[in-house]
Amino acid sequence: MKSPDLNKSRRIIPADTEQQYDIFTGRFLVTLLDESDDIRKLKSALFEKAGIRTAQSGDFADKKEISEEKYRDAGAFIYEDFGVAIIDPDEDQHVALNRISSEYNFIIEPEEVIFSPEPVPGVKETGGVTWGLDKTRVDESKYSGKGVSVAILDTGMDLDHPDFSGRNIKYKSFVPGESIDDLNGHGTHCTGIACGNTDNKRKRYGVANESDIFVGKVLGGTEGRGSDSWIINGINWAVNSGCNIISMSLGAPVYPRQTYKRAYERVAQYALKNNTLIIAAAGNESRRQYGIISPVGSPANCPSIMAVGAIDRNYHLADFSNGSINPDGQVDIVGPGINIYSSWPMKARYQMLNGTSMATPYVAGIAALYLEKNSGAGATDIWHRLIIHAKRLNLNSTDVGAGLVQAP
Amino acid sequence: MEKKILITVKETYLDKMEDILESLAKHKMKITDSHQFGVISGSVEEENISQIKSEPYIDAVEDDEIAGVMK
């Protein structure tokens, strides 16, 4: 395993720039959640499920002699006494590890570069909040979404997640035969971004941390799939429950020149008339490094739904973020969508994900802050405020719309 | 073959939803949900769809497709 170059961190996940991981080494720490778990199980999982060869502390007669130089040929090094492995995965291996993390009861966290604690003039301290909250200025906002109802229509939620204890959460499943339980994790992650607060180390990751939460489960199974009609049922529930904002990190790809679905546009117009703003993910089908830009997906391509693209911490567009290819499917705004830290169903508790799925609840949460500030404002007014206050970016408006969402 | 569809009703017909549901039942459509904003979901034999499309209250007939988390 190679030592990280701390002056130039590496790409692990589809990425835009070298600089975006400048606080991470590019390697990851895998930690068993239950110390009593057999470390051999983790070792076999790393090899068999992710193709990562391991070395371990037991290979050293004197553990004080352990050094990176001596295990540089392995893809992972396991500290058997701690139940921790440090790994150096490629993209596919990273995806495979995320997939088996629940089954093997471990969490994956990026290995951070440890900086000198000396303050550097002019550099903002961001240790207490995620980068997304910093760049959208949520951490400076005096608003918390208090009195605003935000609906997350997704894969459900882990209602027993300790970070949400004491929060006002209403929920309903529209997936036949399934409870609100989040079998995928995506819904718990998105809810955390839009409406969560702080993690167990008091690091803040959620935007509208005093909002009222409505969780509508419209995508089922471990894969997180659902039908248009379940989603429309979920929107109908949220609107008629008086929700002000609906966040939908879901959708389906569309072809170039394909128009929006009339049924979604009708329900979105109904929502706007009832002062409910629907915000949806533009989609992740683009592969910009290969010159492929895919159109904004459905239902974000509806004129009456706000479509959200994704950028990284350096204001660069995410490689996967869809663009305004079709005449009626425009990207309206962007949010943070690379290396986004948020809640995840227990026991893992937290997860880092990429996607326009993550950018969307940022915009939804910030919409709730605007509504708290401008009590009584209509949904189209909130839409307008999100757009006019967005931070302009030196990127094509067909990719980022008005720019990066900013908190009031 | 039976197909799941979404029907969007013209806005000028929104006050006639009960009549429309009766009409769709005559086309042997099995209604799953009907919303006040004029969207109806259900399933129907594919061969009946063209007749439904010709009804004056129809704005659009679209497939009820699968969506998912954004991967």
Briefly characterize the structure.
The complex is a heterodimer of chains A (408) and B (71). With 408 residues, chain A is an alpha/beta fold.
Walkthrough of the structure:
The complex is a heterodimer of chains A (408) and B (71). Chain A contains 9 helices and 16 strands. Chain A has 408 residues and is of the alpha/beta class. In chain A, the strands form 3 sheets. A 7-stranded parallel sheet of chain A has the order 7-8-6-10-12-13-14, sandwiched between helices. In chain A, strands 2-3-4-1-5 form a 5-stranded mixed sheet, covered by helices on one side. In chain A, strand 3 and strand 4 (84-87) form a beta hairpin. In chain A, helix 7 (356-373) packs across helix 8. Chain A is globular, with a radius of gyration of 21 Å. By secondary structure, chain B is α+β, with helices and mostly antiparallel strands. Chain B has a 4-stranded antiparallel sheet. In chain B, a hairpin with a 4-residue loop joins strand 2 (30-34) and strand 3. The model of chain B has no long low-confidence stretch (mean pLDDT 96). The interface between A and B is medium-sized, with 36 and 24 residues.
Give a topology summary.
The complex is a heterodimer of chains A (408) and B (71).
Chain A (H helix, E strand, L loop, with lengths): L23 E9 L6 H10 L5 E3 L19 E4 L4 E4 L3 H10 L5 E7 L18 H5 L13 E6 L14 E5 L12 H10 L16 E6 L7 E3 H13 L4 E4 L1 E2 L10 H12 L3 E5 L24 E6 L21 E4 L3 E4 L6 E4 L2 H18 L5 H10 L8 H4 L8
Parallel strand pairs in A: 2-3, 6-8, 6-10, 7-8, 10-12, 12-13, 13-14
Antiparallel strand pairs in A: 1-4, 1-5, 3-4, 15-16
Chain B lengths: L1 E8 L7 H10 L3 E5 L4 E7 L3 H5 L4 E6 L2 E4 L2
Antiparallel strand pairs in B: 1-3, 1-4, 2-3
